[in-house]
Write a structure and sequence with these properties.
The chain crosses the membrane at residues 12-35, 47-66, 166-186, 206-237. It comes from Sinocyclocheilus anshuiensis. It is a multi-pass membrane protein. By secondary structure, this protein is mainly α. It has 2 domains: 2-70 and 163-232, no CATH class; 78-153 and 244-269 and 297-318, no CATH class. The chain is 49% helix and 6% strand. It has helices at residues 2-14, 17-38, 46-70, 84-92, 96-108, 164-194, 202-232, 234-241, 249-253, 271-279; strands at 123-124, 129-130, 136-138, 143-145, 150-152, 157-159, 257-258, 261-262. A two-stranded antiparallel ribbon has the order 1-2. It has a two-stranded antiparallel ribbon with strand order 3-4. A hairpin with a 4-residue loop joins strand 5 (150-152) and strand 6 (157-159). Helix 2 (17-38) crosses helix 7, helix 4 runs antiparallel to helix 5 and helix 6 packs antiparallel against helix 7. The two termini are 45 Å apart. Mean pLDDT is 78; it is low at 234-247 and 306-341. The protein binds zinc ion (ZN) (2 copies). One zinc ion is lined by residues 138, 140-141, 151, 158. One zinc ion (ZN) is lined by residues 124, 126-127, 137, 143-144, 332.
Length: 341
């Protein structure tokens, strides 16, 4: 017991290493750009402009990175947890059929459209919670996270409903920061090759600034492109990159299962509405890391939902009876209960 607690403690400490690495690189880039480049080499009028733009990029980068790291993941509200009496009933019951009935009864009162691949109500045994749509259990955070996209080691946090906007902005400002550094340092890099730069440690800082900025930019670009595909759906990006439609990392690897079967694009309501879902209605706040996402993370509009369709899981007969494994076993244990037709 004490050993597992010590291991968990070590794991928590080590999980901060990627954040410390990124922070150290960024702090070094600040020192190299401001003190070694601007103060040492840039003697023209562009010096002030460089510094001003650099500081805007740097502040926005730090702000969004901070928010992506320290915004706690949203967890399902109380109404998705089993009540004390339901929990007792559920635990006392040993027959899977009866357990299924208990969960189905509770799920009928909740705005849930998706099930496990087996047709079972998506239930997290660890958190004792009926999972809302797009909610997944994170084995690193040890909790169910609303609209979980993925657990990102570089922010040591789950990217989900609460910080999806911050994470996208963090990637955007990181790329702008890298592009700005690379484009302004490039001229000094050329001078370095023709031997125009004075000797000293400053020129190596300049050289490394360019390499590091380009390296980070290329890595970020791939992740950013992938997230844009998530956000925009198939309408533009998938055609551009020749990729299939998807809605988030988790959904890219296991499509959410609806009454009519699995549909990777089930929550994709078009570019404009997807953007407003994440960034909110007020476009002035789109580029600032304040929370403006729509909804509460428990319910998301569906692409195919008809107005007349009952939003609750009333039509149980439509769910498939045959099994298959629960798609979320890797993320955490779920109770598999088959539905009767
Ligand atoms: Zn859970
Ligand atoms: Zn997590």
């Amino acid at each position: 017991m004490a050993l597992s607690r010590a291991l968990r403690c070590c794991q928590r400490v080590f999980s901060w290493i990627p954040v410390i690495i990124i922070s150290s690189v960024v702090l070094w880039s600040y020192y190299a750009y401001v003190f070694e480049l601007c103060f040492a080499f840039t003697l023209s009028n562009t010096y002030m402009a460089y510094l001003l733009i650099f500081h805007v990029c740097f502040i926005m980068f730090c702000w969004t990175y901070w928010k992506a790291i320290f915004t706690p993941p949203s967890t399902p509200s109380k109404k998705f947890h089993l009540s004390y009496s339901d929990k007792e009933r559920y635990e006392m019951e040993e027959r899977p059929d009866a357990q299924k009935q208990i969960l189905t009864e509770i799920a009928k009162k909740l705005p849930i459209f998706t099930r496990a691949q087996s047709g079972a109500v998506r239930f997290c045994d660890r958190c004792q919670v009926i999972k809302p749509d797009r909610c997944h259990h994170c084995s690193v955070c040890e909790t169910c996270v609303l609209k979980m996209d993925h657990h990102c080691p570089w922010v040591n946090n789950c990217v989900g409903f609460s910080n999806y906007k911050f994470f996208l902005l963090f990637l955007s400002y990181s790329m702008i920061y890298c592009v700005f550094i690379a484009s302004t340092v490039f001229q000094y890099f050329l001078k370095f090759w023709v031997g125009d730069l004075p000797n000293g440690p400053a020129k190596f800082h300049v050289l490394f600034l360019l390499f590091v900025a380009l390296m980070f930019f290329v890595s970020l670009m791939f992740l950013f492109a992938f997230l844009l595909i998530d956000l925009c759906g198939s309408y533009f990006w998938c055609g551009l990159f020749n990729l299939k439609e998807r809605s988030c990392f988790s959904e890219a690897f296991s499509a959410p299962v609806f009454q009519n079967g699995p549909d990777r694009n089930g929550f994709n309501v078009g570019l404009s509405r997807n953007l407003r879902q994440v960034f909110g209605e007020d476009k002035k706040l789109w580029f600032i890391p304040v929370f403006t996402s729509q909804g509460d993370g428990h319910y998301f509009p569906l692409r195919t939902l008809c107005e007349s369709e009952n939003p609750l899981l009333a039509n149980e007969g439509k769910w498939m009876e045959d099994g298959g494994s629960d798609e979320e076993n890797e993320n955490g244990p779920s109770v598999i209960i088959r539905m009767e037709s």
